[in-house]
Amino acid sequence: MQQDILINWSPQETRVAVVENGAVQELHLERTLERGLVGNVYLGKVARVLPGMQSAFIDIGLERAAFLHVADVWHPPAAGESLSESRANQVQIPIERQVFEGQALLVQVIKDPIGTKGARLSTQISIAGRLLVFLPQDDHIGISQKIPTAQRDELRSRMQRLAGSQGGGFILRTNGEDASDAELSEDIGYLRKAWARIKDASVRLPPQSLLHQDLSLLQRVLRDLVGESTQTIKVDSREQFESLKAFGAEFMPMAVEKLQHYKGERPIFDLYSIDEEIAKALGRRVDLKSGGYLIVDQTEALTTVDVNTGGYVGARNFDDTIFKTNLEAAQAIARQLRLRNLGGIIIADFIDMVRDDHRAAVLAEFKKQLSRDRVKTMVGGFSQLGLVEMTRKRTRDSLAHMLCEPCAVCEGKGNVKTARSVTYDIFREILREARQFSPREFRVVASPKVIELFLDEESQHLAGLSEFIGKPVSLQSEAAMGQEQYDIVLM
To answer: Does residue 175 have a pLDDT over 80?
Structure first.
């Protein structure tokens, strides 16, 4: 599988496309103004200690001082003491005995500033890698609770052997469950280098300095996306190309030789029609080459994918037509899950197949395509209703959630009331108002389509209503109003 990574950079937004064999498989997006502070490490300066709140305000160079609660002041566990016991004991020590005004303190942001509240801090530093989280102030080896209990002892032993005796603890993340020793060792090396840089900066730089920033999307490309199958990493910005080259030389030497500065006249995303792919990935319908199509619906609880034959009639008989469509759909669904970054529960409704060997072949193809996904997936077999249920780990917002917002007209429902339904709502509302108030006139302000219906097909009913309530009803068209929106003004 040949892979190319294309990076389109601008001051306000970074976009990354992963292209395999000429087809876009993944899209990643980061916007400068939406990038938070969580994970950043600062050399803070204690501005005020508040014994009554058991908290302290720490100046880390931001507009508002950050907030440190006594529960977030880290102390390593004493000999024979568990982590929970250590945390309980440290809360019992008053904060005024742990920090003092003017003290320089190494802190990490654990919650972004919200409104008038400053960022929340912790003195326990943790550095996230692709597979591991490094705890430089601790020597604990932890395994994600989502990994089955039966595998944890073996993984803990592996981690203890790989970590060696250089100090610091590690937590193995869920996506590191199936990682090789080489991959884990590479992550350990990267995390130790990052911590060494933080320690060096904490000695050289003055208080209120940023010592470590969580990796940008560009840097995560080198750390997380580049593999043996990656041929090139093309960047369309000279400045970012040089920055990535320096980062790669220190942390990811194997990736540096694949970096290229793209100088072409055409925008880099035009090379593989990536903007068109983004537009398609935001739609419900995905057309298949055979003439069939998928309908993808994303809800809060789950995502459903419905497979349809459409205009495909190319096989010798109906069973073969269904089988061929489902095989192509299995490939397309796996790609759409990666492209749209859909997570959580996913239900694929393949077209019903009579033959067991056809069902087995479609399921095998689906699992094969999903095995190329770097995000963890779990797939069941066909249910009694002919559905395939699966889960895909949520790693970030889906493409639709990043690029779109609910429609201001339908408010996310996906449909609006017909103009006739709205006119009947207005009739009922006028009757309701007429029972309570006695204005000189009722004026209806609504969308042009609703007003047009009142003037045409519903004009007789409107005249009858006006006669029944004994008041005139006037109409006013408002182009800015949505079809469901209206006002009834008492004149």
So the answer is: no
